[in-house]
Amino acid sequence: MKRMSPAAPHRPSTLPIINQRRLMRDLNAIGRIGIGNRGAVTRLVFSVKELRSRQVLIHLMRQAELKIHIDGIGNIFGRLDGSDPKAPAVLAGSHLDTVIHGGKYDGPVGVIGALEAIRTIRENRIATRSPLEVVCFVGEESSRFGFSTLGSSLVAGEVHPRDLANAVDAQGTKLADVLLSLGISPKRLRGLTRNPKSLKAYFELHIEQGPILEAIGKRIGLVTAIAAPSRFRIIFTGQADHSGTTPMEMRKDALVASAQLIEFIEKTCRKFSPMAKGRVVGTVGALKIEPGVINAVPGRAELSVDIRSTSAQSKARVSRMVTKQAQQIARKRAISVEVLTIREEDPVPLDKRLLRVTKEICDEKQVVYEIMPSGAGHDAMQMAKITPAAMIFIPSQRGISHNPLEWTDPDDIGLGTQLLMETMIRVANEQF
Questions:
Q1: Is residue 77 a contact partner of residue 135, using CB atoms and an 8 Å limit?
Q2: In whole angstroms, what is the distance from residue 212 CA to residue 305 CA?
Q3: Using one digit for the tens of pLDDT, what is the confidence trace for 58-78?
Q4: What is the dihedral of CA 8, 9, 14, 20, to 10 degrees?
Q5: Residue 342: its pLDDT value, please?
Q6: 289 phi, psi to nearest 5 deg
Q7: How many Å apart are CA 350 and CA 210, to the nearest integer?
Q8: pLDDT value of residue 275
Q9: How does pLDDT run across 124-154, given as a tens digit for each residue?
Q10: Looking at 238-363, which runs of residues are DSSP E strands?
Q11: Residue 344, burial from CB neighbour count under 10 angstroms (0-12, 13-18, 19+)
Q12: How far is 295 from 289, CA to CA, in rounded Å?
């Protein structure tokens, strides 16, 4: 992109204020879908609850008089034309699916925040040259199939139907089969890639999902880069035996092998954590044991492993170490091991020029901000591959996310949405 043109259109001296009350009303409406005990929200991708949340969003888009487009995987786009309908669009959004027993702000803040920004622009007749779009991407969370950022990856051309082969949920249902049950054939997934020339920029407003902003007393975080995951399933296969009659030295216990690997992952990632540019985090988020009864030696254990870093080199090194250790453990215990890759992604730097624009607006509004990376993955990491992308963070109370206790102050949500709106207007009207 070119530097900002001195002949850019005149900026309005004053801009409207977003309707925070309406914003929170709609966020709470989405948050009630899938709510359970103690406020936990569960809207797994392609579940009835998740599909219901998308129906509510479509209703809100229609109320806002946006042009609606739903693509072959179910990504929802709402468009407000600019003065030049053929100009590349400024896109903003996030996702509505959740983890199991999650909170109500992770994802919806970005979707409803973008919707509120565009509604406010339309209602106040703020002129923009470029069209503005709000998007809800399908399947950002990996909780059901272990496959993250599904919808945005397809839009960015970063995934193909064959890449979904190892995506299976806890009940053994394949993602490919779920798609077919919804009438989504592999052929419909081809050609979903968005033409980069149709986009000017992508923005994503999101809760931080970490403790930094609250700890330093800042209400806005401007993101420089997004850490990426390596995700794989590791399956140890030993032999199921009677727990009372099988001597300890003769056992082929798949669960004990898994426990050794889990401890190795934690110790290895701790060694990388102090490294400023190579911090690595590792998680075994799910473990399935067979036969899974108290009086039998486990003959099979399956681990779901997630390794993340903003350093591709450090992440790859740890992933290799984990794979090698799994093989060594299996060999020593005379059992077998299989490593199945689910997703391999590279860390993504975000656009420095969009970061500069957002900083300028914060400075003009006297909003104190923090320049920071994102340890969590987001749809922005896929969109950054086809268009300039930027992220705005707002604080998470006590850094809690993916949890019913997830909370962000409504005033911070309002501030983030206001900043998003003003940034979208400026980028839509100026040359880069």
A1: yes
A2: 25
A3: 999 999 999 999 999 999 999
A4: -90
A5: 85
A6: -120, 140
A7: 19
A8: 55
A9: 999 999 999 999 999 999 889 988 899 999 9
A10: 241-242, 280-290, 296-297, 300-309, 336-344, 348-349
A11: middle
A12: 13
Structure tokens at 98: 């959740």
Greatest Cα pair distance in the chain? 84
**Beta strands 369-374 and 89-95, pairing class:** unpaired
Domains in the chain, ordered, with CATH? 20-227+347-429 (3.40.630.10), 228-344 (3.30.70.360)
Give the separation between CA 235 and CA 301, rounded to whole angstroms.
Answer: 6
- What is the value of pTM for the model shown? 0.82
What whole-number distance in Å separates Cα of residue 151 and Cα of residue 234? 26
SS3 for 226?
strand
Q: State the Cα–Cα distance between residues 304 and 234, nearest whole angstrom.
A: 7
The encoded tokens of residue 254 equal: 């798949």
* Closest C-alpha to 400, from 97, 39, 53: 39
The four Cα atoms 209, 98, 110, 80 give a dihedral, to 10 degrees, of 170
Amino acid symbol at 357: V
Strands 89-95 vs 220-226: parallel, antiparallel or unpaired:
unpaired
Sign of CA dihedral 206, 430, 362, 381: positive
Report pLDDT digits (tens) over 348-360.
999 999 999 999 9
